[in-house]
Amino acid sequence: MRGIESLKKPEKNTREQALLAIFAASVVINGVQFLRNRKLNKEAHTDTLTGLSNRRGFEKAYKKIERKMPGNFALLVVDVDGLKQANDEDSYQEGDRLLKKVTRVMQKNLRTEDPSRPPDVVSVSRTGGDEFAILLPGVNNNKDLETVRSRLQSELDDQNASASIGEVIHEVGMTQEDMLETADNLLHINKEDRALAVCTPEEIDRAVHIGVTAEEGPPLRAVPKILSALDRQGQA
User: Fold this and answer.
1) Domain boundaries, the chain
2) Side by side, which strands form the sheet with 131-137?
3) What is the C-alpha separation between 34 and 7, in angstroms, rounded?
4) How far is CA 209 from CA 52, 179, 193, 206, in A?
5) pLDDT in tens for each of the 236 residues of the chain?
6) What does CATH list as the number for 55-174?
7) The overall pTM is greater than 0.70
8) DSSP letters along the chain, please?
9) Distance CA 100, CA 86 (A)
């Protein structure tokens, strides 16, 4: 009997080893699949040119901050000036360099210096060809928001990466669409004011009396924008 039992032990050990091998292989396969899915998910939410979050990534970040900090965050929208001109007159490579420069300026300028706050306190996303969106957790008053906006505007101008910026503070009940629309409206006002600021009297006179198009003469983009800026200046 002992001889028979001794003959059966190797068979039992072989089965156990086989089961362990199958389990180990399953762990490896599941681990590889998990890493692959995580990589694909990251790629789906990342802009390939700048490495920032894309529109999908922005929407995910917005939902997260809205859920955790309602009424306690702000949004900046940034529109890069001159991208179309860079692409048309120089090359798409030059346009790509401009977008990368803007990205570097934003990442450096918006980095928090407060060690008590998480490193991802600011979420920067490229939401369109020349458009970026920045979520600012904890910014809930106009003074702080204007400080951030003006500092970023100044740094972009200093780096010859001109851009127009719109801003808005979240209020409980505002949707993502409300936030983007409000910020976008203020962005266009900012763009008009900046265009007017660099216009010569002759350019303004030309815009008012004969009109120009985007193709005819930078920095003027369209007559209505110049006229509305002039109206606001006259009412000030």
Assistant:
1) 55-174
2) 123-126, 131-137, 73-80, 163-169
3) 42
4) 43, 36, 19, 5
5) 455 555 455 555 777 776 676 766 666 676 656 555 555 445 577 899 999 999 999 999 999 999 999 989 999 999 998 777 777 676 778 888 889 999 999 988 875 444 444 444 578 999 988 999 999 999 999 999 999 999 999 999 888 888 899 999 999 889 999 999 999 999 988 887 776 665 666 666 666 565 544 444 444 444 445 555 445 545 54
6) 3.30.70.270
7) no
8) -HHHHHHHHHHHHHHHHHHHHHHHHHHHHHHHHHHHHHHHHHHHTB-TTT-SB-HHHHHHHHHHHHHHSTTSEEEEEEEETTHHHIIIII-HHHHHHHHHHHHHHHHHHT----TTS-TTSSEEEE-SSSEEEEEEET--SHHHHHHHHHHHHHHHHHTT--EEEEEEE--TT--HHHHHHHHHHHHHHHHHHHHHHT--HHHHHHHHHT---TTT-TT---HHHHHHHHHHHHH-
9) 13
Tokens of 55: 């529109």
How far apart, in whole angstroms, are the C-alpha atoms of residue 30 and residue 34?
6
34, amino acid identity:
F
Instruction: Give the amino acid at 235.
Output: Q
